[in-house]
């Protein structure tokens, strides 16, 4: 499936797997996607590391065409409320991250 997307085939068949369904919208949708792979230098994880690197190698050739979605002006108040809520959530998460970083620094 990743190879088909990288070769820009017109009809890509998505397998029945959790990973495929989780990545489907990111790989063919309106988004920029970054893939970070975790590999191990251990000989015991050689097969998994090799498969991960093959996946990443194929995935780097996938090209999506993200575009800006149009916003309808009739619901601006609701959008502004949602935006403010999201900004508050981001601020809270940043505070939690800073607290965790401070705990780690004290260890």
CATH topology of the largest domain: Methane Monooxygenase Hydroxylase, Chain G, domain 1
Using only C-alpha atoms, the radius of gyration works out to 20 Å
SS-derived structural category:
mainly alpha
CATH architectural grouping of the largest domain = Up-down Bundle
Question: Could you describe the largest sheet, including whether it forms a barrel?
Answer: none
Counting DSSP E segments of at least 2 residues, the number of strands comes to 0
Helix amount? 55-70%
The gist of it:
This protein has 107 residues and is mostly helical. The protein has four helices and no strands.
Structural account:
The chain is mainly α. It folds into 2 domains: 68 residues, Methane Monooxygenase Hydroxylase, Chain G, domain 1, CATH 1.20.58.1980; 38 residues. The longest helix is centred in the last third of the chain and has 31 residues. The chain is flat. It starts with a helix and ends with a helix.
